[in-house]
Specification:
The chain is of the alpha/beta class. It is built from two helices and three strands, in the order E-H-E-H-E.
Length: 65
């Protein structure tokens, strides 16, 4: 099982990506965030294998995250 997190400043994008992930039995959606900075705390405290990141976000870019 591949543990995934979605991070995008647009809640609709988080919702859409989350629904795609849920359709794949080999992927487990751990959480979704619309705030990049908030996601850092979660990622540092939890095992995550794959991040789906928006590149351009207000407080931190997906690349910097």
């Amino acid at each position: 099982m591949i543990r995934c997190v979605v991070v995008d400043d647009e809640p609709l994008a988080v919702s859409l990506l989350s629904s795609y992930i849920r359709k794949h039995t080999e992927l487990e959606l751990v959480d979704g965030f619309s705030d990049g900075l908030e996601s850092i705390t979660f990622i540092n405290k939890n095992k995550v294998d794959l991040l789906f990141l928006d590149i351009l976000m207000p407080d931190i870019t997906g690349i910097a995250l």
